[in-house]
Amino acid sequence: MPMNESHIQEILELERQKLAIQVAAAEVMMDDKIRASERRVIDAVTGAITNAVVELKSDNMDLKAELKSVRNELKGEIGDVRNEIRDVRNELKADILRLEEKIDNHAH
Fold first, then answer.
1. Mind listing the pLDDT tens digit for each residue in 7-16?
2. Residue 3 C-alpha from the chain's centroid
3. Confidence bin at 1 (pLDDT 50/70/90)
4. pLDDT tens for residues 27-44?
5. CA distance 16 to 14
6. d(Cα 62, Cα 60) in Å, to the nearest integer?
7. Largest distance between two CA atoms of the chain
8. C-alpha–C-alpha distance, residues 18 and 24, integer Å
9. SS3 sequence, the chain?
10. pLDDT by residue (tens digit) across 77-103?
């Protein structure tokens, strides 16, 4: 039984629709793969940033602890220097008093 023109047109139209559906399905698959790739990249970048922030916070805490230690060490050293200055001042006062006494004794 020979196919007439309307049957051939129907078959061609169905083939066109089938191809359109296949193309749309391929586009959806590509979009899904692109979204999955984007998600992986976003997750990787987010993870890297999160790790960097955690590391920076840890470094910051370490630096604060070190700064506190240095500050305490400097306070101790400053206290030692102040004590030395006080001792030297007292020695100088005592030396001045002795010299003044010698001068007074020689003057009389």
1. 999 999 999 9
2. 74
3. low
4. 999 999 999 999 999 999
5. 5
6. 5
7. 157
8. 10
9. CCCCHHHHHHHHHHHHHHHHHHHHHHHHHHHHHHHHHHHHHHHHHHHHHHHHHHHHHHHHHHHHHHHHHHHHHHHHHHHHHHHHHHHHHHHHHHHHHHHHHHHHHHHC
10. 999 999 999 999 999 999 999 999 999
